[in-house]
Amino acid sequence: MQTLDLSDPQTRLIVLTGAGTSAESGIPTYRAMNGLWRTHSIQEVATAYGFLNDPALGWRFYSERRVDALAASPNAGHVALADIEERLGDRFLLVTQNIDGLHQRAGSRRVIELHGNLLHSRCTVCDRPPFADDRLYQELPLPLCEVCTDRAAPGMIRPAVVWFGEAIQGADMARVEKFMESAPRGHLVFLAAGTSGVVTPASAFVEDAKRLAAATWLVNLEPPENVGYFQNVLLGASGAIFPALFGVTPG
Ligand code: NAD
After folding, report:
1. What is the value of pTM for the model shown?
2. I need a labelling partner for 169 at 20 to 30 A (CA). Which of 28, 96, 203, 244 fits?
């Protein structure tokens, strides 16, 4: 099994994770044979239009996702990422498309949640910041925002996740860019894992990394859409591969 050489103190590691890195924790991915998009329509449960059209259906779906996330535990892949961060400190950045919070529960701290967090909610109308919320909204009435009640039509509470057609936080994109650009030339390692490589902007990070002469690595069960951009491809489960790849002992 190959091990990443991160011994040079100038080397920086950026890791992009997707739904596959939580699969070994029992959380279904979206695009697998038994994945969530086989049983649910993206338009209905992963767009703002779908939510406003049928918020009860939206909340049933996200309440089930909350139940799954709360029942799950971090797997060996999550733990290995937390361990390598412990060793690299500020030379490490984790960017996840996952909304389940399992990286943080494993101990990761330098994490950008590109698509938000399932266990937070926000208002559909006002700009109150997202707040921690693990409640299940499976029955009517659905929750209204308590902050903008003075409006003629107060907002509804919605999951604080980024749906298709919604923008990623500019500050998150800037942090990714800054981290990659601040690596001395020849000292950036980009690793993607558990992602089908079709959802932008994350799927294009590997192209940005290549422009900066990064070494590019992929860990995935099967070749994703953007496999051609990676120099090193390891096919398999992240929970099995990460501990050896990072040279950390499974705990
Ligand atoms: P995806 O479902 O499109 O693709 C998952 C990829 O992971 C597949 O290529 C699959 O081959 C691979 N995979 C499955 N098990 C694996 C394992 N054990 N180790 C390594 N690879 C494995 O996921 P995506 O690319 O992240 O895009 C889907 C979107 O769905 C994201 O925007 C994300 O926000 C959301 N999502 C999040 C979660 C979560 O938070 N856990 C779960 C489902 C979907």
Report:
1. 0.94
2. 28
